[in-house]
């Protein structure tokens, strides 16, 4: 699909490649190395991961979504950045996963200091653990104008319209996707029902081992159930990612493959039986 979004990716792409962005994503490589031998690395990384959701081209969350997609989908797949955005951006909901690197490093330094202390008193390997500190990873200056309600005892995926002052400078975007409510057409060409269509799913390569993709898809399915009120979620799955989607409950909807951004993909579906209708 041609790029008709109001975002000029061709002119924005050089800015996305500046030193600040390069330094941000280089930090993720360091975080991965620190967690390489951690016994509960996925949970630890997820502890410092948060989601932001916006409708349409609301900055800076939408911008973070685009630059993450450009990094992953364009750099790794080697196609032009100008092809990334299309006319569906303004009518889609964008979900971005952020990693709070500063708080992560603070706790890592504290854990390393505790390990040195235990070693100095001859208690290394004793299993003794200090009480971890509670960390607040809310973005400073985040002023949502509206948010969704949540069920008692359940974390909510907040659908927010952000004030322009919101700037998650402390966060590194590590993954993104977009979704929208579309009509499902039967084989005879007649309207069947509304479904959630998920596409542009991407996770920065260095953190794919920490279940960021699973967290993003779980958030998308929650939105599909509670905001879109649909029974089915469809995802455009690249052929190399079919195994991942199969593990989280998706099955191929059709045998034939399609092409999007010069890449073959297959449509996979999952039933969200508990959706409120």
Radius of gyration: 20 Å
The name CATH uses for the topology is: Aminopeptidase
Work out the strand percent: 15-25%
Distance between the termini: 32 Å
Average pLDDT value? 77
Compute the number of helices: 7
InterPro entries: Acyl_CoA_acyltransferase (IPR016181), GNAT_dom (IPR000182)
Domain N-acetyltransferase: 193-270
GO molecular function, one term: acyltransferase activity, transferring groups other than amino-acyl groups
Pfam families: Acetyltransf_10
Give the helix/strand layout.
Blueprint (H helix, E strand, L loop, with lengths): L8 H8 L2 H16 L6 H7 L1 E7 L5 H17 L15 E8 H20 L50 E15 L5 E13 L8 H15 L5 E7 L3 H6 L3 E2 L5 E3 L2 E9 L6
Helix pairs in contact: 2-5
Brief descriptors of the model:
single chain; 277 residues; alpha+beta; Aminopeptidase; eight-stranded mixed sheet; 7 helices; 32% helix; Acetyltransferase (GNAT) domain containing protein; acyltransferase activity, transferring groups other than amino-acyl groups; Acyl_CoA_acyltransferase; GNAT_dom
